[in-house]
Amino acid sequence: MWKNWARTEKVTPLRVERPASVEAVQRAVVAAGRSRLRIKAVGAGHSFTGIAVARGVQLDVSALSGVLAVDIARQRVTLGGGTFLHQVPALLKPFGLAMANLGDIDRQSISGAISTGTHGTGRLFGGISTQVVGAVLVIGDGSLLTVNETHNAELLPAVALGLGALGIIVAVTLQCVPAFVLHAREAAEPLGVVLEGLDERVEAADHFEFYWFPHTQTALTKTNTRLPGEAPRAPLGAGKRFIDDWLVANQVFRVTCSVARVVPSIIPSLNRTAEKLTGTRQFSDHSARVFASRRTVRFREMEYALPAEAVPAVLREIDALIERRGWRISFPVEVRFAAADGLWLSTAEGRQTGYIAVHRYFRESHAEYFEAVEEIMMAYAGRPHWGKLHTRDAASLREVYPHFDAFGAVRDRLDPARLFTNDYVDRVLGA
Fold first, then answer.
1. DSSP for 79-119, written as a single string
2. How far apart are CA 75 and CA 173, in angstroms?
3. Cβ count near 278 (within 10 Å)
4. Could you tell me the pLDDT band of residue 336, with boundaries at 50, 70 and 90?
5. Which whole number is the average pLDDT over 415-425?
6. pLDDT of 52 above 50
7. Predicted confidence band of residue 220 (pLDDT cuts 50, 70, 90)
8. Residues 236-285: pLDDT tens digits?
9. What average pLDDT score do residues 218-244 get?
10. Residue 346 in contact with residue 126, Cβ under 8 Å?
11. pLDDT for position 247
């Protein structure tokens, strides 16, 4: 039985295949088609939705990993589709390159990350899919399709973020940047002050984000500034990193979540304690070591993309909702930002975007909280993250994606027999 990280999905596939070559992927797709079985690639299982659930053939493509080609002049690197994000910094280091932006979790595979719209934060930076300048995938008839600026270029806005619905991605070409250092400044600040000056904060920073613990009025802000790769580094010491990022952020937090589940009434006090434990700190290090954090406490998450200017109003509505319903929420709300892009199913397509993510401990019921927050998000033309929990369907999503039907036409062309689908994909894209 396969289970995803959040334990929201599980399945026992009819069969599991682990191809060690592109040709083996092609054979698997052809065989699935002949048997009229659906086939899905699976990465790290870090999506909260059922986007990777395979009841027919589950394809583990982790053997298709590593650097396949490098174009130093154009700073482009082609990776196997099964390469995990946490492996990429070491793979790029010999070439003096880095990914332009990353999210705060790096456990995903590169193909899974781009297929679900994984993103970081920064007003000038799009999600990971916007770094894709080429891809190779096995489509419904088992043939290879190359998509880049010279081959099938018109398909790139669909393929770069395709929900796994267009084929099995076996290679991804990324537009990289010269390796760089990030200076991080983390501070606890009054939530009201942050919201009042939010546009200015986002505009002034390379990368700005913050967390807010419900039942408090404090924002835990993080501002990252990009520096040249040769800039002096002042990384967190091993002891400081262990205490802050491992002991407090994971082990102590796991205990408090477990206790709070049994005694919800103590959550406001625990959250106020958590904000006090998170003090100001500054450090600088190689970009990937600053972008990504280690997360070991399991949770469920829903994240919505909104017009950036709507973030303060929506956050205030969520605060009022929690207090009005009398809920006790132990997990923080996360707020990030991204540049507008032109990918057809990107949550940031066509607009400067703010992201608001709500979470619940995985042993707590999340449905009532998430659905009530989702109603607020939908009133602001919100778009749900494809890899995180939501209740939307194709009819609803068509209203907020101008290129929804154009993507559907590409899907009809590349996978007319619907080999690469499952219940979740059918719900959000239509059968």
1. EETT-BGGGHHHHHGGGTEE-S---S---SBHHHHHHHT--
2. 10
3. 18
4. very high
5. 98
6. yes
7. very high
8. 876 656 455 554 555 556 667 676 677 777 777 766 666 665 668 999 99
9. 84
10. yes
11. 45
Topology, domain 180-384: Vanillyl-alcohol Oxidase; Chain A, domain 3 (3.40.462)
The percent of residues in the chain predicted with pLDDT above 70, rounded, is 93
Share of the chain above pLDDT 90, in %: 86
| Distances 290 to 60, 221, 233, 287, 403 between C-alpha atoms, Å | 29, 14, 11, 5, 35
Angle of helix 367-379 relative to helix 311-325, nearest 10 degrees, comes to 140
Contact 137, 169 (CB under 8 A): yes
357, containing H or E segment: strand 353-361
- Rounded to whole angstroms, what are the CA distances from 333 to 9, 116, 219, 302, 431? 23, 20, 10, 10, 33
Eight-state DSSP code of residue 386: T
Q: Which helix (H) or strand (E) holds 39?
A: strand 39-42
Residues 306 and 310: their CA atoms lie apart, in Å, by 7
**Token pair of 399 as six digits:** 């209203």
**16: β partners:** 58
Q: 16, 138 in Cβ contact below 8 A?
A: no
Nearest to 158 by CA among 322, 26, 23, 343: 343
What span, in angstroms and rounded, lies between the C-alpha atoms of 431 and 416?
11
End-to-end CA distance of the chain: give it in Å, rounded: 26
The Cβ of residue 196 has, within 10 Å, a number of other Cβ atoms equal to 12
State the Cα–Cα distance between residues 393 and 353, nearest whole angstrom: 21
Question: What is the DSSP track for 245-283?
Answer: IIIIIIIIHHHHHHHHHH-GGGHHHHHHHHHHH---EEE
Question: Quick one: average pLDDT of 16-23?
Answer: 98
> How far is Cα 267 from Cα 273, in angstroms, rounded to an integer?
10
DSSP β-bridge partners for residue 147:
135
Fill in the DSSP letter of residue 340: -
d(CA 376, CA 387): 19
Q: Encode pLDDT of 381-408 as tens digits.
A: 999 999 999 999 999 999 999 999 999 9
Q: Does pTM top 0.85 for this prediction?
A: yes
